[in-house]
Amino acid sequence: MIECNGPVRARVRTCIVQALVVFTLTASVRGLQPANCTQPGPAGLAAAPCEQASAGQMAALYAGVFLMCVSAAGARFNQATMGADQFDAAADRDVFFNWYFIVLYVSAVLGSTVIVYVQDTVSWQLGFGLAGVASVVGLAALLLGARYYRRPAAQGSPFTGMARVIVAATRKRKLNVAAPEERKFYHGRRSDDNDGKASADDDTALAPSDRFSFLNRAAVITDGDVDAADGAVVRPWRICTVRQVEEFKAVLRILPLWSAAIFLSISIGVQINFTILQALAMDRALGRFTVPAGSFFVSSLLSVVVFLGIIDRVLLPLWRRLTGGHTPRPLQRIGAGHVLTVVSMASSAALERWRITTVRAHGEEGNPAWVSPLSALWLVLPFALSGVGEALHFPAQVTLYYQEFPPPLKNTATGMVALIVALGFYLSTAFVDVVRRTTSWLPDNMNASRLENLYWLLAVLVAINFIYYLICAKLYKYQNIGK
């Protein structure tokens, strides 16, 4: 059995392969599947209740889900950091992040169309098997290129250093730091490694910055904190270096900007779920082919891919030519993504208003099965706008976090976007539940709903969130970008 251990760069890829092997087995091995439901017998005899899956069968299924979640969390954005580490110039890293997201979204499109089609029309075994083969090829490519990668040395967990800053500042909360010239700050020893121990700053005369000054207590030397002979840390949970304090401040400075992106993900999650329901209540015919309702989301993925290519090959070169070589800052691109998300929510509201007008014109508000003659292809427009917004703000966020976070936190920086997506989709469910409980907008009958009100509410909230983002962006000062 393949184990999820070994070199870190291959571990998560190995887990992906193992997860897909488990999924393939659950679809292939009869003992890992619940019994088929009995079909109704002759003469109208009722079918027997479907047999529930056993504990062992559910354990096998959830083992695959668990491995897939762990491996996806470890692979997707750590690979982004690993790829960016191969470049020295910030412009090259920007290009890499754009193309990383292009490949990521292209793979999502293929998975949502080709793999799903194979599973629906041929077999689940073949669908999971193809995904497994693709993962094995990716793992082989990763290992074959390992000798050429630039691999920074591991430095231990960055969260330990941040925890030490919090604990040390709390334990010294009664210490007066109003007069820094009367205090001696700890800068570490130049002979120590940066592996969780003290490390010397380049400028040992540098005092901590004034922002979040309550954290400066963590770097103030008090009796018994360090060895008087060689400057070694004696009580590591009472003293930190100035650099560790400043690195923690860098994280705190960027958190408001990060929080502003969460509501973008909430609105996108709500839009995805309800657009599928809208598609089911609209004409999905495309010639002789009926487009599956769940496939409309692919238009958002495709718009991300297309627009990222346009950004990289057309818009950025044109912008540099017009501005004398300047590149749009990450905060500018993120702000443009916010604006397009507002427009996308407003267009979804306008389209739903159009759909419900056709329902009322035919007097079918009380018929949940009635399908509007309005073409569901109109739903591509809001999704396309949302996709263009994602193409602007997601890669720009990765660039911002990667550039602005301290070196020990660069892996965490790129994972911040994954956390935004996860929080947004979980909170979108809670948001819809609150709307259901407090309004009558979302009954089970889509033809009697007031879904347009939900979209307008989202548009207003995303606009307010954009104002919050503008305030955060105005107050934020770049630490590394542009230097």
Automatic annotation (TrEMBL):
InterPro entries assigned: POT_fam (IPR000109)
Protein name: Uncharacterized protein
Keywords attached to this entry: Membrane, Signal, Transmembrane, Transmembrane helix
UniProt GO MF annotations: transmembrane transporter activity
Record has Transmembrane as a keyword: yes
Any one Gene Ontology cellular component term annotated for this protein: membrane
Transmembrane segments: 55-75, 96-118, 124-144, 257-281, 293-311, 370-392, 413-434, 454-476
Residue ranges of coiled coil: none
Signal sequence range: 1-31
UniProt subcellular location: Membrane
Organism: Zizania palustris (Northern wild rice)
Keyword Membrane found: yes
